[in-house]
Amino acid sequence: MQQDQVVLCWVITQLVSVHGYASANATVYVDNFTLTVGEEDFEWTPTGSPTLSDLVTWVNSLGTNVYARVVQTTSTSEFALQIFGTKTGVDSAITFSGLNLDDGSPPTTVDPADESIHTSEAADSEFTVNGVAFQRSSNSVNGVIDGVTLNLISTSADGESEVVSVSRGTDSSETVIKKLIDSYNDLMTSYKGMTANSINSDKPGTFANNPTMLNFINEIKAKFAKGANYGDSMETLISLGTMGIDLQRDGSLKFNSLNFYSAQADGLQSKLAEGVSVGYTSSSNNLKEYLKDLIGFSGNSGSLATLIRSESTQISGLNKRQLDLQDRLASVQNSLISQYSALNALLYQLSQTNNALTGALDAISNNSKN
After folding, report:
1. CB neighbours (10 Å) of residue 188?
2. Average of pLDDT values for 30-36?
3. Radius of gyration of the chain (CA)
4. Of 106, 98, 81, 87, nearest in space to 22 by CA
5. Do 94 and 37 meet the contact criterion of CB atoms below 8 Å apart?
6. Is the pLDDT of residue 235 over 90?
7. How far apart are CA 159 and CA 156, in angstroms?
8. Helix pair angle (287-295, 302-369), 10° resolution
9. How many CA atoms lie within 13 A of 309 on its CB side?
């Protein structure tokens, strides 16, 4: 298969870096200390005699794109305060004012241009591709070339450019589609086995009497039947049949080689490379989002996991009720046994009494005759 090749000539003039300052202090003296993160200002008004640790704790509690720490700079136990931006680009630059040195020098003497306290300057990446200049807030760049991510490693030497050949990789779409078909069919086979009943199977499934528990499978099938959308905004619809995926009458999927090879010749790989969403209605309503809501990212969360935990809780409750009933049954049984034993003893006593009474009556009767 012929490969598309693009020859690029680019010059990297600047790489992304974070903004940070370090001011060596033993004790922090502040005068209306203000920390600016991008365009947002934060003011610190400590009480008493604040320390480096107090300032670090305050900075790290802001919940924004900034991080502070205290580091040891020499073997003589001298420390420095470092404040970093955690997000790249000039829009996330970090500046501060109102921080005095440990000798109480006014803030104006802490010059941001002083290399003794200035560690790095926030910057965007700047580069040219085929003579066109670009600027981004990251060293990993998308959107310059369709389907290609540029990872900027280092700056280019003055006046020099790099020639890079970008070619499309091996077309693995057939393997991916066949794997998708196999996974789907395995799921449907499990579903049919779990919902089988005495009418359609000799071996009823676990959910034979309650198939609605697996209604989410019908939603998955419906989203598959809807087809797929591709492109930056997912505006273009492509049916599964066009990609070589046929839906069978029994609900399974089958690979259609003729349709697939026709789609492959029509640029299927390029379409898939733009991003594909199955059952797409919106960015929050598609098969991927539905499965994420159903099983979560790890398979241990989501609505299905919640249902399983609920079922487990009910089982535990039933087991406890069973144990309680068994305890009550044992108690009733013991009570009945005790009552039986008492009645049996009473019956014996009544028998003895009856014998004694009968003997006495017989004796009286005999005496009367004499």
Report:
1. 18
2. 80
3. 40
4. 81
5. yes
6. no
7. 8
8. 40
9. 9
| Packing angle of the helix pair 216-226, 287-295 (nearest 10 deg) | 160
For 12, left (φ over 0), alpha (ψ -120 to 50), or beta? Answer: beta
Contacts of 125 (CB under 8 A, 6+ apart): 12, 14, 15, 16, 135, 136, 137, 138, 139, 141, 152
- φ/ψ of residue 298, rounded to 5: -105, -5
The residue type found at 359 is G
Contact call for residues 124 and 14 (beta carbons, < 8 A): yes
Ramachandran area for residue 2 (φ above 0: left; ψ -120 to 50: alpha; else beta): beta
Question: What is the CA angle 245-192-303, rounded to 5?
Answer: 85
Q: pLDDT tens digits for 88-110?
A: 777 777 777 777 655 555 544 44
Question: Higher pLDDT residue, 330 or 364?
Answer: 330
As given in the structure block, the two tokens for residue 126 are 């700047």
> Which has the higher per-residue pLDDT, 55 or 254?
254
Distance CA 35, CA 41 (A): 6
| Eight-state DSSP code of residue 214 | G
DSSP assignment of 128-190 equals EETTEEEEESSSEEEEEETTEEEE--SPPPTT--EEEEEE-----HHHHHHHHHHHHHHHHHH
d(CA 156, CA 352): 118
Which of 182, 181, 173 is CA-nearest to residue 266?
173
Residue ranges covered by each domain of the chain: 5-14+125-167, 20-120, 173-282
Q: Which of 177, 94, 87 lies closest to 139 in space, CA to CA?
A: 87
- Copy the structure tokens of residue 224: 């598959």
Q: What is the DSSP letter of 267?
A: T
120/20 Cα distance (integer angstroms): 6
* CA gap 24, 103 in Å, rounded: 11
Neighbours of 206 (CB within 10 A): 12
Q: Considering only CA atoms, which of 179, 206, 202 is closest in space to residue 190? A: 206
Q: Indicate the DSSP class of residue 238.
A: E
Q: Over the stretch 160-212, which tens digit does the pLDDT of each residue have?
A: 777 676 666 677 788 888 998 898 889 888 888 888 888 878 888 888 787 77
Closest CA to 163 of 130, 126, 127: 130
